[in-house]
Amino acid sequence: MDTLFHGVIGAALCSRPGLAGGRRGPVDRIGRRQWVDWTLWAALFFGLVPDLASLGIHFAADLFTGNGIRWHGIPDFIFVLYNITHSLLGMAIGHGLLVGWKRALWLPALAWPLHVLTDVPTHGDGRFITPLFWPFSEAGFAGWSWWQHPAIFYGGWILAGGLWLLVLILRLTWRSQ
């Protein structure tokens, strides 16, 4: 799916204000419920990381050199970065380093594997197939390319909106109890 979708879904599922916050959700030091806390922004960021750390570098370089955003001429090292950030090994090392550095990141950093697992069925065969077993294998599941199937794109965004609506309903329901 598109990069922003991954951030929104990551925030909905891997943050305390989202579904991962459970019945109570985030609470500040004096016991007030907080609709937004740092885990929301961290999960949003980690949902974007696999694409930002690969294709984002190429697009940023293109913008800074005045070429606009181009999908052609992507250097080979960008595909190596894409393989690293979209593989089980890359996710495990990345998540391990993040949690080792700051234990509180364990929940929001799960938005990274969620991004990759969402890419598996929504990326077709070709350069952007999700290389789950890289560097051990280049094989991947040839899913349905979201950019060629508008129903997948719009369905994903309807799902994202539905998840956040569910969060809102659950928070309001639990609050009134």
Descriptive account of the structure:
With 177 residues, the protein is mainly alpha-helical. It has one domain. It is 56% helix and 0% strand. The chain is built from 7 helices and no strands. The longest helix is centred in the last third of the chain and has 27 residues, at 150-176. It is globular, with a radius of gyration of 18 Å.
Key terms for this structure?
177 residues, 0% strand
Helix-strand layout with pairing:
Elements: H1 3-13, H2 38-52, H3 55-64, H4 76-85, H5 88-101, H6 111-122, H7 150-176
Helix pairs in contact: 1-2, 1-6, 1-7, 2-6
Describe the structure concisely for a colleague.
The protein has 7 helices and no strands. With 177 residues, it is mainly alpha-helical.
Instruction: Describe the sheet with the most strands.
Output: none
- State the share of residues found in helices, binned by percent: 55-70%
- Terminus-to-terminus distance: 37 Å
Structurally, how many domains make up the residues? 1
Number of E strands: 0
Structural class by sheet pairing and helices:
mainly alpha
Provide the succession of SSEs. HHHHHHH
**Coarse shape:** globular
How many H/I helical runs? 7
The gyration radius over C-alpha positions equals: 18 Å
Q: How much is the average pLDDT?
A: 89
Low-pLDDT segments = none
Instruction: Please report which band the strand proportion falls in: under 5%, 5-15%, 15-25%, 25-35%, 35-45% or over 45%.
Output: under 5%
